[in-house]
Amino acid sequence: QVQLVETGGGSVQAGGSLKLSCAASGMVARRYSMGWYRQAPGKRRDLVALVTSSGSTNYEDSVKGRFTIFRDNGKNTVYLQMNNLKPEDTGVYYCKAVQTIRNTDFDYWGQGTQVTVSA
User: Fold this and answer.
1) Burial class, 87, CB count within 10 angstroms (exposed 0-12 / middle 13-18 / buried 19+)
2) 37: number of CA atoms within 13 Å, CB side?
3) Minimal CA–CA distance to 36: which of 58, 53, 56, 3?
4) pLDDT at residue 30, rounded to an integer
5) pLDDT in tens, 72-83
6) How high is the pLDDT of residue 29?
7) DSSP string, the chain
8) Which of 21, 64, 97, 117 has the fewest CB atoms within 10 Å, counting from its CB?
9) What is the pLDDT at residue 27?
């Protein structure tokens, strides 16, 4: 059974840092594109950062230069290092794994971890 478990959320002041972890089990994470999504209260869930199975990364414009996504394939884990946090970064952060096989997407979500940034 595939499971993604996010940890590392918390409350920080603006300018602070947090490192989120997404530990995968029941799957080989390096075969998947892994993404971090953020959902603020009353808003939709949006992609923040993505790392593909080949190691390419992509970031939402507002986090470029502040967030870094990286993976440790040996630990089957993906991380999101968040620096210089801003109040608008507040939300629940979800990890998602996607693998495309024969034009069919197989995707999995974690349960989310709360990040709160105060001014």
Assistant:
1) exposed
2) 18
3) 58
4) 86
5) 989 999 999 999
6) 85
7) --EEEEE--EEEETT--EEEEEEEESS-GGGSEEEEEEE-TTS-EEEEEEE-TTS-EEE-GGGTTTEEEEEETTTTEEEEEE-S--GGG-EEEEEEEEEEETTEEEEEE---EEEEEE-
8) 64
9) 87
